[in-house]
Write a structure and sequence with these properties.
Chain lengths: ~190, ~475
Amino acid sequence: MSFDPFQTLTSRTVVLHQENIDTDQIIPARFLTTTVKDGLGKSAFYDWRYDEDGRPKNSSVFNGVNPETHQILVAGSNFGCGSSREHAPWALADFGFRAVISSDIADIFKSNAQKNGLLPVEVDEETHKKLLASPGAEVSIDLENCEVTFGDGEKGSFPIEAFARRCLLDGVDPLGHLLNQVPDIEAYEAQ
Amino acid sequence: MSELSSSSQSSAKSLFDKLWERHVVVEETAEAPAVLYIDLHLIHEVTSPQAFSVLDARGLKVRRPDKTFGTLDHSTPTMPANAKGELPYATPEAKSQVETLIGNCKDHGVELLNMGDPRRGIVHVIGPELGLTQPGKTIVCGDSHTSTHGAFGALAFGIGTTEVGHVLATQCVLQRKPKSMRVVFDGALPEGVGAKDMALAMIAQIGADGGQGCAIEFAGEAVRALSMDGRMTLCNMSIEAGARFGMVAPDDTTYDWLKDRDYAPKGLAWNEALADWMELKTELGAHFDREVHVDATKIRPMITYGVSPDAAAPIDEMAPTPSTEAEHHAADYMKFEAGKPFSNVTVDRVFIGSCTNSRLSDLREAAIVMRGRKVKPGVITLIVPGSEAVKRAAEAEKLHEIFLAAGAEWREPGCSMCIAMNGDSGKPGELVVSTSNRNFIGRQGKGVRTVLASPATAAASAIEGHIADPRPYLFARESA
Ligand code: SF4
């Protein structure tokens, strides 16, 4: 399985101020009865985007967003907490996002996002505050150098697990790497 | 060898260190995470179809069908089949998801607890019940509440669907060793307080991200005193504190519970297993990256009042005044009046079930409260056992008769209103007191306001029609 390699991205941000945005917000459970992973973008943040009758809510920051120009989601801390549903990053990626920035991104979501070409970026509190305060700002992300640039050339760095970074840069799922370890797995099983 | 290296090798190990070391196939390096061997892979219908598709597309087979075990729980109806034997699936997609897992298990030789199987149930209830879950094992499932199995001294954690594919294909996951954390519950729990209250009290204390990136070991007097059911409830909610792993060292309570279960070792193998399991303890002086103490003697029955599990408080307090933006947002949604007692809040529905609280002891707890009483008219009360086995055991004790006589509904096993994807859900605006684990907006249906609580609290709230302290009911029984 593969996705587009992630090297650099320059795009505008969509900002969600809330903390603790859980995977039930990112994609409500009623959309999980699918057996495929495509086409979930229309269900992303569904209850934030549509009212009871399925009409787009004017108040939603998502409506009016151009997925071509706004590919970076900036959210409050503890983003992606809750369930292990990989449908959450599938939905965000299918909607058009290529990166999520927060001060703190939940473990399983982070790991799932990395496997689907959606870059989770954890920045320090100060950078986070500035990004939250400027919706629609243009932000550049350089994964090779683990750097975020915004405003008048202000820079911040972000940590990312080395192997996940490699896979994102190459646009590959780690399954190939695991399959290469089969001799060791066999040896372990023989113990 | 130098003194230094031998002494560092003999340094005290935690339960978690031991579990981890036993399963490393390839050590982690700066470039790559460890390859960790998985002893038991549990699968269900929601998070597995796309993983099987990847396998099929690459022409791969399930590496160890003997270590893979499937059940159906999330999308399954909790109403019985009709006269023609048809199950009332909520949507054609739900049915097709179930059929997809049946097909995948058949194609790959994986054992599945199909609809109608007397052992079927919620994945985190059946694993322990069948004795598949054992101390010392690594256990994964495409489900964040896999931490439940850590109650047995197993290294159990939730994974995403891509990783489900990895485990199907290689029986391994790539994982860096997480940080370690110990949560010690000091002292004994007061009467009328249980494991669910402990979990909520802890999360309120450390926050919904308090265990982020950590493997938690639960320890202390109050944890030792818990039954296996209670330990499962506590480990289950590790993820609500942000931790992917939660565990309790095995002891006699664990061994007594496991003995003679279907898949537990038998005869000589049992004795060997027992000797091995007794090694699974944290040694004195073992290092933890973080340690937190919770005073168990001060815990009271807990409820949540917000839209994150850390918005939890003792039931006999007043609804707090929101201060941050997030708290205002939560308060607007939940509509609790600040400064008013929680017992002022009117309840529309009650749900007793989920992998947090749907085992026999949970149902007994609810039955103690409901025995000989009636649910407040208009309060729809759903009682959903965690598995077919729990259902049979409860019926053998006639608990279902207590529930039915009280005016509650007694359903077929499954996740039901915990995740509300099988058609069981609340209506917009309704307030549901629920024994499940997540109070996120919309978790139990669009616009539904969820209050998390113990089975006793949920049952008392069903009787009174507003959020209610269960202690008078529990104490009344003792003095009677
Ligand atoms: S009962 Fe709820 S938390 Fe448990 S496995 Fe089912 S949906 Fe997940």
